[in-house]
## 1
Amino acid sequence: MSSVSPVRPATRADVGAAVRTLGRAFADYPWTRHTIAADGHQRRLEAFQELFVARIGLEHGRGWVTDDCAAVSVWTTPDSTEVGSVFAELAPRFAELAGDRAPFAEEAERVVSPYRPQEPVWFLGTVGVDPERQGNGLGSAVIRPGLAEADRVGAAAFLETSLEGNVRFYQRLGFVVTADVRLPSGGPRTWFMTRPPH
């Protein structure tokens, strides 16, 4: 019997529950451990995810959740033309949340920037499943609507991951590795993956 909850578009009412799920999912994620201060890390991480979900995803992108918000995906799309200015507006807050890791966060962004697509894509900005619910197909369930939308408009999908175990998961969804880079200053290895439109 499948334990996959129904998936629906995320709404403003989902922000709190979605952020709690992402906070649990990213608690020990190598990228965020490298780029967000250890002091008050969980609080900082959840505030970071809240900005991304509420200000980027819901206002300028797309997102999907399971009915119980145990799984969340947030995308920017080729129509997300204002995202650059929103990131610029939020940059001081992101730096504040990074705390003493802000120089490492800035360095990481400089290193990965050349590997990101220049053409418009569906960019999977964040996705997470509550750790107690992982392994039940929820991650795929909240990612597939974005892939279907990308296919509908003939756009590629793109993501980055800093967990090697995620690479095979994304390969099963049609993504291929286009680059992998070891971040400097003791940062994690990061894979860049693209999925052509199907």
## 2
Amino acid sequence: MSWTWLWLAGLLEIAWAAGLKYSHGFSRPLPTVFTLLAMVASFWCLAQAVRALPLGTAYAVWTGIGAVGAFALGVWLFGEALTPWRAACLALIVIGIAGLKLGA
């Protein structure tokens, strides 16, 4: 169950990262509230995960999921560049997340 909490925490991290963009520096009320709620929920889910998982593994996987997801949303929603170099670096993050999961 702890890995489920961790994946949910990572998905919520992606949500709040996107919410930061839409909130325009917390100047738009609805995206700001969404972002803050997603942050709290993400941290809560992470806290549930670290009850059973090693802290270093859980934190690295959580931030990795958020980084990969935020990157993907940046490319998809905000027109950020997807160069071969950036894609290769992203693949390294995904490999790292998989390695931490397999080694836990």
## 3
Amino acid sequence: MSVGVKIFAGRASEHLANQIAESYGVSLGNVKVLEFSDGEFQPSFEETVRGQDVFIVQSTMPPADNLFELLLMVDAAKRASARKIITVIPYFGFARQDRKDKPRVAIGAKLVANMLMAAGVDRLITMDLHADQIQGFFEFPVDHLFASTIFYPEIEKLNTGNLIMAAPDAGGAKRANSYAKKLDVGLALCHKQRQKANEVATMTVIGDVTGKDVVLVDDMCDTAGTLTKAADLFMEKGAKSVRAFCTHAVLSGPAYDRIKESKITELIVTDTIPLKQQSDKIRVVSVADLFSDVIRRLVNNQSISSHFIIS
């Protein structure tokens, strides 16, 4: 008897999970969440998962309820005798806490990994971790996908011979350089200094962007402070236009207003995190087909390395 595949969604990623399930060719599994008056909640599978490969789709952006809901669903699937439990976490929250960067702080990403392992996860599929080494925090396989699989064709359409890739900070230099090599174009960098989190103090440009169509790439856009300052600075340095590609549209606080008021022509993001509001400057490309294909390949024990266009 062949093993069945069932795809379920947490409430934070229901729209994306629906698209993944549709692309895979199955109906999204039935999950109900009982909410108590004090805020406590209890998810339950309303169909059997016994002996099935269960894929649970849930991004773990704040609030922390999203993460805890995922953990409860994993525990429920394990106690309901699922054959394998694979968490699909398009946006892995707490990934910025991958090390002790000052005394007396937690390593949040490792704590999340420990909780997922303790809950009973057998495998993790995620995209563009803020720090690649987080894969090593797990004692089970981690399939780390890259949004470059989707972004690269989009960027290639913009290449009219006047393109230059750019990173909004030194941390994104490797990613931007990978795109630049693949497209055979130049590279520019921004060097920033922070006085405190989410606040950029000073920024300088490294590289000549005069008359160029600049394409900024980053793994996430949170308050959009770094991104919009970099875009405005590139325009001041003579750039013809600035577009940005960011995998995870965290877009918190003043992000939407900053993007609207900035000189960014367009911000292209994925749907790993649903947009809080619409914007004329923000365009969403879906990762549903990519995740559904990876699920199909895993179920059939096929290689997924073809999806790693740029690492």
